[in-house]
Write a structure and sequence with these properties.
The chain has helices spanning 22-30, 45-53, 102-120, 134-139, 147-154, 185-191, 194-210, 236-250, 264-268, 287-296, 333-363; strands spanning 11-14, 39-42, 62-65, 79-83, 126-129, 166-170, 175-178, 218-221, 255-259, 281-284, 303-307, 312-316. The protein is an alpha/beta fold.
């Protein structure tokens, strides 16, 4: 490993819920050919050592408890650097596998907070989060229902209003961004407002340009069947979604629609050479509308990306899978995709930043 590599190029992997499959999928990914050599774990060294013990001995790296997280650049490929954040319960290893436990929720939140701190300080370029459990998070006294809200709060400077964020689910063929996330369908319909749609288009456009797309093509799905048929099946497209699209276009955003939600995802699917996608991103109105098409293309390929944060964050598209915890049967495929997506987005963001810096330098 190149000790001179800038730490801003590194991935911080958060352990997730210690009672779920998070530690195991990190361990399997680490021992695989898809492993990113510039990565380290923010978590409990003992929990990670237990997960590694389930691997064949000839594929098992050694856990190195980092006294200074910057020492990770000195490790070899046979060593897994683990940085233990403040706030880990001392008896975390006693939390039973496959069950909701307060200690696991406390540890998962501590890992997220530490990873965000490192990202804010420029110590790491991206965060890849293993799954946590919302109920364990609540038992630990956390006021956030999940990763997205916790990352949003921790990524906001003290005294500043929380920056708006959006959830994107992506794979190699399709990227979809949600206007509303984890609320009931009735609440989601109420939350589809002009401001919410326009803000989603702004965040999607800004994020895509940070990946290196000079003029991202955003398709907007309607809320109702056939995108409302001009008001016959609902008027949200006429009253809310359409005007938001026009406002975005007035700002220079290449947004189109509202398109019929039962066909727009097929039109956007990018699978060359057989199928060239018409759009780069689809903006969906609610959770299942946007996520079902991506998940149908393959659960082991889906990646959750949080847009709007000042750093790159990705996560596998599955939960803690308590039924598989400790069995050795967890599949690391989605985590591998999340790590590769983080590396891709980070590289795009860095390239875009270099272009902007060069333009500013030339202008001065």
């Amino acid at each position: 490993m190149n000790a001179a590599s800038p730490l801003a190029d590194w991935l911080a992997l958060t352990m997730g819920d210690a009672c779920g499959i998070g530690p195991e999928i990190i361990a399997k990914w680490w021992a695989s050919e898809r492993r990113d050599p510039q990565a380290f774990v923010v978590g409990c060294p003992d929990v990670m050592a237990r997960a590694l013990s389930w691997l064949p001995a000839d594929r098992r790296p050694i856990v190195v408890r980092l006294n200074d997280w910057r020492d990770v650049a000195r490790l070899t490929s046979c060593e897994m650097g683990v940085w233990a954040p403040p706030g880990l319960p001392p008896d975390l290893l006693q939390a039973p596998l496959g069950r909701v436990d307060r200690r696991a929720g406390q540890a998962a939140a501590a890992c997220i907070r530490e990873a965000v701190r490192l990202a804010q300080q420029g110590g790491v370029g991206a965060i890849v989060t293993a799954p946590l459990h919302k109920e364990a998070l609540a038992l630990a006294g956390e006021p956030y229902p999940g990763h997205t809200e916790l990352l949003q709060a921790e990524g906001t400077p003290p005294g500043q209003p929380m920056a708006p964020v959006r959830m994107m689910l992506a794979n190699r063929q399709l990227k979809t961004v949600l206007v509303t996330i984890h609320v009931s369908l009735r609440q989601a319909i109420e939350q589809v407002t002009f401001d919410a749609v326009l803000e989603t288009l702004r965040i999607s456009h800004r994020s895509a340009t940070q990946w290196g797309l000079s003029r991202p093509r955003l398709a907007v799905a309607g809320l109702n069947p056939h995108a409302g048929e001009g008001g016959l099946f609902g008027d949200e497209e006429v009253r809310i979604i359409g005007p938001a699209i026009e406002a975005a276009r007035a700002e220079g955003i290449d947004a189109s629609g509202p398109w019929a939600p039962d066909t727009v995802f097929m039109r956007a699917r990018h699978d060359p050479p057989a199928h060239e996608g018409e759009f780069d991103v689809v903006v969906a109105m609610y959770h299942d509308q946007g996520l079902i098409p991506v998940k149908y293309l393959g659960l082991d390929e889906g990646v959750n990306v949080t847009l709007g944060l000042p750093f790159v964050r990705t996560s596998p598209d599955h939960g803690t899978a308590f039924d598989l915890a400790g069995t050795g049967r967890a599949d690391e495929g989605s985590f591998a995709e999340a790590a590769e997506m983080a590396r891709l987005l980070l590289a795009g963001r860095q390239a875009a930043e270099r272009v902007r810096a060069s333009a500013l330098s030339a202008a001065s």
